[in-house]
């Protein structure tokens, strides 16, 4: 069970990284930058930090691409 969970987490991170390179994800980060900056949470792809809720939204968006 634990090995399966590790595999699923790695798969999800891989999806976030690949999705962060898509056009939709690249369009989302400048928008978030206009409404939120200086947070503590990282968004995959660009070296930007946002409020945790906004970073989670951006990363989830990337993972679903």
Assign an overall shape.
globular
Euclidean distance between termini CA atoms: 27 Å
Rg: 12 Å
Number of domains: 1
Counted beta strands: 2
Which secondary-structure class do the elements indicate? mainly alpha
What string gives the helices and strands in order?
A: HHEEH
**What is the share of helical residues?**
55-70%
Task: Provide the spatial order of strands within the biggest beta sheet.
Answer: 1-2
Count of alpha/pi helices: 3
What are the segments in which pLDDT stays under 50 over at least 5 consecutive residues? none
Compute the average pLDDT: 87
Largest sheet: 2 strands, antiparallel
Structure description:
It is a single chain. The chain is mainly alpha-helical and 65 residues long. It has one domain. The protein has helices at 2-19, 23-35, 52-63, and strands spanning 41-42, 49-50. It has a two-stranded antiparallel sheet with strand order 1-2. β1 and β2 (49-50) form a beta hairpin.
Which characteristics define this entry?
single chain; 65 residues; mainly alpha; two-stranded antiparallel sheet; 2 strands; 66% helix; 6% strand; globular
Write the layout of secondary structure elements.
Elements: H1 2-19, H2 23-35, E1 41-42, E2 49-50, H3 52-63
Antiparallel strand pairs: 1-2
Helix pairs in contact: 1-3, 2-3
